[in-house]
Amino acid sequence: MADAQTAGRWHIGMGVDAGIPTKNPFQYALGGDVRLQKELSSHLAATLTAGFTHYFEKDHFAGYNEYGSPFNVIPVKAGLKYFFTDGVYVGGEAGGGFGFEQWKNSFLWSPSIGIEFKNGI
Length: 121
What we know:
By secondary structure, this protein is mostly beta strands.
């Protein structure tokens, strides 16, 4: 089945990210991102995501003398979304987290599953 009217369209979206870090001394993370999405076919889309994430410390770094500044990261990821039906998808992205000050860069990945509504949400 051909879908010439929708394949090739571009979408842009924004999101809020929240998480629980797996390493000490951080308690939780909060950030935001912007995602650019390009429809490759009626079932497949490519994504490019960038944003900003701040990791909040536990007890203001109590007992962690080697850490002297907050942990801020700019994540940049590329990936794919596969749409099972109209709007229901599974996806994955991989890329790098670029740290500030003494923090190093790191590899990151993010799986996703979701629903994309036609009204822009």
